[in-house]
Specification:
globular, single chain, mainly alpha, 0% strand, 4 helices
Amino acid sequence: MSEAALEAAQAALAAEHAAVYGYGVVGGRVGDARAAEAGAAHAAHRARRDALARAVRDLGGRPAASAAAYALPFPVADAAAAVRLAAELEDRIAGVYSDLVRAAEGPLRRDAASALREAAVRAVRWRGSGVAFPGLAERS
């Protein structure tokens, strides 16, 4: 694999670390109606994070460690803000997986495409609407 694939995998791993942290916040604020959805997304991002750490090692890299905390893009004081944060997390994840799809080959590329699709679906569920090309900068 190329250096570009390793760099993109590291970026996706860093984004997954941030998403795991962010979903901890979402889960604490989202309310009972969507708590199960937040829990499922949290578990999915933990699993993706762990798979990416293995992929980085397989590519010859040392997996980036998680930070102790992450800055949130806006205050999350209530359930509505938690839903917005979840959608934002998924948009960011889609972006890094889009980069990994472009950089990787074989099974890693297939896994990245699957992760991109999952993030796009979760973003639609949280936001209530989708974008034409999830993961691309033009989506905004």
